[in-house]
Design brief:
With 206 residues, this protein is mainly α. Helices cover 70% and strands 0% of the residues. It has helices at residues 5-29, 36-43, 47-53, 57-72, 81-96, 101-112, 116-143, 153-169, 177-191. Helix 5 (81-96) crosses helix 9. It is elongated and about 55 Å long. The mean pLDDT is 89.
């Protein structure tokens, strides 16, 4: 079967409408009260259309969150690993602090513990790809001589991003720019990283 360009455009429009509807409903009702029926009605599609692409509302909302996270927190390479890590981490903090994204992700995580299929989807679609991108960015810094060759890069990623998601899950105060800068500084120092200007907190932060 050959899919026509017009069919692809209609499918993408429907997909976007479904994702936007899911996020709108999360804002209005909270994650727990969102249903597939409500998403379908808001998006102007049938439930069958939604189930053709996603097995449950958690998968819909996970895709919406993933799209937003990838779009707002790219792993850029300016040649300054400390600055790039600060920017990336603050992008994640801002997204998690903005409804409906933070509450939606917390809702997804609340289901992960009793839904093995969802847990696998979260790892495969969100956690693992983002983890590999973070390791790849550190590896480029390593190749540039900013991070020692023997540094444990996967562990460094956990050290950098673990505190952000720990705070989010436990609903602790949102880290500010100074806290993020201090986190980056401490992790890079632990790796034995060096840069011409050091890894201190940027002037004017906080």
């Amino acid at each position: 079967m050959i899919t026509s360009p017009s069919s692809l455009r209609r499918s993408e429009r429907s997909r976007r409408a479904i994702l936007e509807a899911a996020l709108e409903l999360c804002t209005e009702k909270g994650y727990g009260r969102v249903t597939i029926e409500a998403i379908a009605a808001r998006a102007g599609v049938s439930k069958k259309t939604i189930y053709r692409w996603w097995p449950a509302k958690s998968a819909v909302i996970l895709e919406a969150f993933t799209d937003a996270l990838v779009g707002t927190t790219p792993f850029i390479d300016t040649g300054d690993i400390a600055a790039d890590l600060r920017d990336n981490l603050m992008g994640a903090v801002r997204l998690l602090s903005t409804p409906p994204f933070g509450p939606a992700y917390a809702g997804i995580l609340s289901e992960v513990h009793h839904d093995d299929g969802l847990a696998e989807t979260v790892r495969a679609k969100l956690v693992d790809p983002r983890f590999e991108e973070a390791v790849a960015r550190l590896r480029r810094a390593q190749a540039q001589g900013q991070i020692p060759a023997d540094a444990d890069l996967p562990l460094a990623v956990e050290m950098l991003y673990g505190p952000v998601y720990y705070r989010h899950v436990l609903r602790k105060p949102v880290p500010d720019e100074e806290t993020i800068a201090a986190l980056v500084t401490q992790v890079l120092r632990a790796l034995g990283a060096r840069a011409p200007d050091g890894f201190g907190v940027p002037e004017g932060v906080g």
